[in-house]
Amino acid sequence: MIFAFANQKGGVGKTTTAVTLADGLARLKRRTLLVDLDPQGHVALSFGLEKSPGLYRLICLDEPLSAVVQTVRPNLDVVPGDKQTEKVKRQITLADFRETILSDLLATAEYEAVLLDMAPSLDVLHINGLIAADWVIIPTRLDALAVDGVNEILTTMAEISRNGHHYRGYSILPTFFDRTTRETLLQFEEITRVFGSSVWPPVPQDTRVRETVAYGQTLWEYSPDSSSVAGFTEGHQYLGGYRQVLGKLLEVLDG
Amino acid sequence: MAESKKERRSTLDPAVADLLKGMQHKQAELQLPRHEREKLARERAKIQSRRDQRVTYDLPPSIREGIRLLAEELRLPASQLATLALARFLREYQNGQIDLGVYKQPSRSPRYDWNLVFPEEWINPSKRKKAG
């Protein structure tokens, strides 16, 4: 099953979410592939690796998937990216059946879950990712601009659906969630009113996330007890956090 | 016939609904006059300070009721009577004055090795009276 992490707004936590959930799935012994569709190449850095042109080799040089993946953790392979991903966009633009190139390449990939970390843009590679996806996860900060990005993605998905693609669903994942501010509450009320059960438990704002990237480790490795993983404490229970989000992802994955 | 009150079913994820409810509650609290906010904060602090003292055990209703009635009769807090009973039990058990073996029976639960089976008249005194 293919999950795309998309929001045209940058800085909403797409890469952190994709990396954390990919490693979370792999730790549960689910064979997982994470594909970096962003020319910034931050997926590789998140695992403590150098950026490299994996996506470029896959799409422009026609190398097989097995040759370009890097095994970064047990059960977890990555197709890294770097600035050469920009060339991929140019090549795709000139190709026939250009919207389904990624989908076709991933069709035979032998993984239980494929996660696509999308760039904050609306170019041909972004469309390729959305067409390849069975389920779209839309991380968003709870501010008006980011929530507008959610609407933009959903509009694009609706257009793709009209052209015959079938999505199994989508989820909205509030990130950088600060439950003490009134603005967060207002935006949270609004998205839950509009999107109901498509809103997944939010990920708390947590400085540990930034440290994690600096050490080239995932959150499960660096700070598994931090609030971004464990969630908010409310009495004796935990609410939100990547642990609960991983549970939601597994519900989708296992049908 | 009176119509039963219909409740709208929440379509939200339970964690999302709980979080939203908590935030709305806090926001509503912020709208209260200062003295009421302070009162609520004091109550919350009191509840939190007592958290370590709170515990939930399953008790036979007859024992719970017995403690309640005695507490009422002596005009004491029931918690203090329960504390007295447990403290005396622990001391007497440690001094070897109580033999649990009399009550012990093997448990079929994967969690415990043993169950304590008490005399019927402790658990259900009224039944014994009727039988007698």
Give a description of the structure.
The complex is a heterodimer of chains A (255) and B (132). Chain A contains 13 helices and 9 strands. Chain A is an alpha/beta fold and 255 residues long. Chain A has a single domain (2-253), classed as P-loop containing nucleotide triphosphate hydrolases (Rossmann fold). In chain A, a hairpin with a 2-residue loop joins strand 3 (70-73) and strand 4. The longest helix of chain A is centred in the middle third of the chain and has 19 residues, at 144-162. Chain A is globular, with a radius of gyration of 17 Å. The model of chain A has no long low-confidence stretch (mean pLDDT 92). With 132 residues, chain B is mainly alpha-helical. Chain B has 3 domains: 16-49; 59-97; 99-132, no CATH class. Chain B has 6 helices and 2 strands, in the order H-H-H-H-E-E-H-H. Chain B starts with 13 loop residues before the first helix and ends with a helix. The model of chain B has no long low-confidence stretch (mean pLDDT 86). The A-B interface holds A 179, 182, 184-185, 188-189, 192, 196-197, 199-202, 231-232, 234, 237, 239-240, 244, 248 and B 11-13, 15-16, 18-20, 22-24, 27.
